[in-house]
Design goal:
- This protein has one domain: GMP Synthetase, Chain A, domain 3 (2-Layer Sandwich).
- The chain is 37% helix and 15% strand.
- A hairpin with a 6-residue loop joins strand 1 and strand 2.
């Protein structure tokens, strides 16, 4: 659903992604995963493989140095209500980076994917 790229002063580019909660049930049913919850989808191998395919496709448009090498799936979308978007729907990067700092650090704690 949404993506924020991270990696300033880090060894590689990573991304924090969100899933489309409205589209997930239909996608899951079409892929043999009927009843898959949003929370379970975050770590589901089939879902992550589909996300990786999308990341790989996006990476074709950029250099290796600019490519996303790891990602994590966050529990929910960035919205105005949760403080991550402005009224004009621009991302409040500082708020996201502050609240999801542990997720960002976890991207860089393990091996590159």
């Amino acid at each position: 659903s949404q993506c924020i790229v991270v990696g300033d002063q880090k060894p590689f580019i990573g991304a924090l992604l969100t899933l489309d909660a409205e589209m997930l049930p239909r996608w899951a049913a079409n892929n043999g995963l009927r009843g898959l919850s949003l929370e379970d989808a975050r770590t589901n191998e089939v879902v992550r493989a589909e996300i990786q395919r999308a990341v790989d496709k996006a990476n074709e448009a950029v250099s290796r140095a600019e490519s996303i090498r790891k990602f994590t799936v966050l529990p929910g979308d960035f919205t105005e209500d949760n403080g991550y978007l402005t009224p004009s729907l621009k991302l409040k990067r500082n708020a996201v980076m502050k609240d999801y700092a542990p997720d960002v650090e976890a991207l860089y704690a393990g091996p590159k994917e």
